[in-house]
């Protein structure tokens, strides 16, 4: 009896999960066994990793593919035949041991897999300009180089971070650059001279172009213990010429290359040489995920490769002068030139633009805006909850304060420029906690001048705020201000709207999915754009006269469509005209307000962060149509 | 504004101001909002606070006698002091009043519990 009851209950649970998956990604479960399995109750959002699913499943049968979707509590496996899928199902379904927490996992068969861009990441051609030369050195050459770089004296600082040693010039992490006027006494060891003729021969054999400068003059040695990694980054354009050479010694690893929503892993075997040139050097980031197992292809599908200690030698040639590449997105020279030379919009005009198209708009729409913003985004809440008891957290641009109550063991303080929204904070808090024991701490200020002591907070967040600043300098200044507030070791989280609203497997973000008219095929994007443009143009002439002298004419974005350019005005429609009339001291009866946005390209936030001294990028990701970074203020 | 928040505020962003801390606090109207006492929280929070700011807050709130001139070393075992700090820092809510820059005299009003720290463009 009881067994029956509990198995019925379990079945209901399974059906519920299957229904969720069906709604989320549109695929159907199957009663009959198929090649496609879903783990229904464990996924990225429950802390499961690709390598742990895989290492578990391949004990029972070969696996062709693992699909883990961001923020989901389920994941998928693909086998090359039904027998193998059945074997995995029989060994894993209803058993514990997959997750660290030891919970039981449930599996179901599906008729297909979710459509996923990353289907064949291992067979895609390498990023342009990337060349991998396996078995570049012999074992005795490897030994000779290891001896020459003599890493015995590099002290073990802490277990979390890789160790480094520099030759030729010091790489200064605080500035992400080298000082060409301060060469080190210790030059690149002569033993490395064998590499360059060898490399030129190999490249010429493959019909590949070599380089037009002499030999590298800077060497960074990185010592990775198993589990250690390096955050995704691009080697500072203005610091080094093209190409960059990276020699792997001692152990194997998987390196991830990323550009926009593209991700491409590359297996770097011991004694291989990697040449990064062109797009792969300038336009793709590279990094190593901190973990102890790597997922790699095998003869039967996928398998895991345990990490060993690995020593990498990165050889570079200093550039003297600004970068002249043709890849603007991650180019520090280009970003600096833009903010210095571009006279189109001055600080004063930017401030006026923000006043008109950000601050006064938020004040007008505050009550309505606040009504629509209640649920904290899970990953922001998770970040806030990661701080210990007694921490001090600051939410800069807190709006109606929806993040102020996420971590009750911390002192959370909010600030915002809009008095309308700060008042909404208090209103909201009164509604949530009837006893009003937890009234929010909030004050009014601008995010460029936060009136808080330096190095005073353990954590700060800026969620959907910096994209409202109208010049690159001001956006950078806002990030610098966050860095100033952090204690050494403190961490900050930034969310900004992404220009690309479809990153992540080409799944549309919630923002685009909410385009109801389009979803029901009632209209096309083009029609929507034309309509909206006409409507807004009319209002613009009424509402926004006189235009700010010297301000650029900005295009008006059509809501819930892809962004056409980076600097845009985004309409906010107020439904009840009564609300608008109450607050607007503007005589126009209009109820559409235009908010200024600078939507970010992928990598843009990381490139800005690289210019902030004393901080290190910890993680960058894409969430709900936003580009996001977590950074840490360096200890010392 | 709770007095724990007060402990972090500075007017240093004003052009020419060197320290801008602690701000001169005036309380015109306050509320006392009872909240749950968590000794670990207060104890861990203390190293993040500025003691001179705590002292000044106590003075203005009329709780001078509750707070010693210097932070005692063994504060973790002194539950009574932790309770007093809890009350001062987390239960007193300043509803109306002002903050004043100690160097320039610039006044930041507190209205409905919200300090307005916004500066004009020509002040920064
Ligand atoms: C899209 S809302 C986000 C609010 C909140 N962080 C959230 O996630 O719900 C943007 C907020 O940024 C604030 N803001 C815009 N420009 C600002 C500035 N220069 N300084 C401070 N806050 C600003 C606005 O008042 C508004 O509350
Ligand atoms: Zn460049």
From TrEMBL, chain A:
<keyword id="KW-0694">RNA-binding</keyword>
<dbReference type="GO" id="GO:0002098">
    <property type="term" value="P:tRNA wobble uridine modification"/>
</dbReference>
<dbReference type="InterPro" id="IPR029063">
    <property type="entry name" value="SAM-dependent_MTases_sf"/>
</dbReference>
<dbReference type="InterPro" id="IPR012677">
    <property type="entry name" value="Nucleotide-bd_a/b_plait_sf"/>
</dbReference>
<protein>
    <submittedName>
        <fullName>Alkylated DNA repair protein alkB homolog 8</fullName>
    </submittedName>
</protein>
<dbReference type="GO" id="GO:0005634">
    <property type="term" value="C:nucleus"/>
</dbReference>
<keyword id="KW-0808">Transferase</keyword>
<dbReference type="InterPro" id="IPR013216">
    <property type="entry name" value="Methyltransf_11"/>
</dbReference>
<feature type="domain" description="Fe2OG dioxygenase">
    <location>
        <begin position="215"/>
        <end position="319"/>
    </location>
</feature>
<dbReference type="GO" id="GO:0008757">
    <property type="term" value="F:S-adenosylmethionine-dependent methyltransferase activity"/>
</dbReference>
<keyword id="KW-0489">Methyltransferase</keyword>
<dbReference type="GO" id="GO:0005737">
    <property type="term" value="C:cytoplasm"/>
</dbReference>
<dbReference type="InterPro" id="IPR051422">
    <property type="entry name" value="AlkB_tRNA_MeTrf/Diox"/>
</dbReference>
<dbReference type="Pfam" id="PF08241">
    <property type="entry name" value="Methyltransf_11"/>
</dbReference>
<keyword id="KW-0862">Zinc</keyword>
<dbReference type="InterPro" id="IPR005123">
    <property type="entry name" value="Oxoglu/Fe-dep_dioxygenase_dom"/>
</dbReference>
<dbReference type="GO" id="GO:0106335">
    <property type="term" value="F:tRNA (5-carboxymethyluridine(34)-5-O)-methyltransferase activity"/>
</dbReference>
<dbReference type="InterPro" id="IPR037151">
    <property type="entry name" value="AlkB-like_sf"/>
</dbReference>
<dbReference type="Pfam" id="PF13532">
    <property type="entry name" value="2OG-FeII_Oxy_2"/>
</dbReference>
<dbReference type="GO" id="GO:0000049">
    <property type="term" value="F:tRNA binding"/>
</dbReference>
<dbReference type="InterPro" id="IPR035979">
    <property type="entry name" value="RBD_domain_sf"/>
</dbReference>
<dbReference type="GO" id="GO:0030488">
    <property type="term" value="P:tRNA methylation"/>
</dbReference>
TrEMBL record, chain B:
<dbReference type="GO" id="GO:0030488">
    <property type="term" value="P:tRNA methylation"/>
</dbReference>
<dbReference type="InterPro" id="IPR039127">
    <property type="entry name" value="Trm112"/>
</dbReference>
<comment type="similarity">
    <text>Belongs to the TRM112 family.</text>
</comment>
<keyword id="KW-0489">Methyltransferase</keyword>
<keyword id="KW-0808">Transferase</keyword>
<dbReference type="GO" id="GO:0070476">
    <property type="term" value="P:rRNA (guanine-N7)-methylation"/>
</dbReference>
<dbReference type="GO" id="GO:0008168">
    <property type="term" value="F:methyltransferase activity"/>
</dbReference>
<dbReference type="GO" id="GO:0048471">
    <property type="term" value="C:perinuclear region of cytoplasm"/>
</dbReference>
<dbReference type="GO" id="GO:0005654">
    <property type="term" value="C:nucleoplasm"/>
</dbReference>
<keyword id="KW-0539">Nucleus</keyword>
<protein>
    <recommendedName>
        <fullName>Multifunctional methyltransferase subunit TRM112-like protein</fullName>
    </recommendedName>
</protein>
<dbReference type="InterPro" id="IPR005651">
    <property type="entry name" value="Trm112-like"/>
</dbReference>
<dbReference type="GO" id="GO:0046982">
    <property type="term" value="F:protein heterodimerization activity"/>
</dbReference>
<dbReference type="Pfam" id="PF03966">
    <property type="entry name" value="Trm112p"/>
</dbReference>
<keyword id="KW-0963">Cytoplasm</keyword>
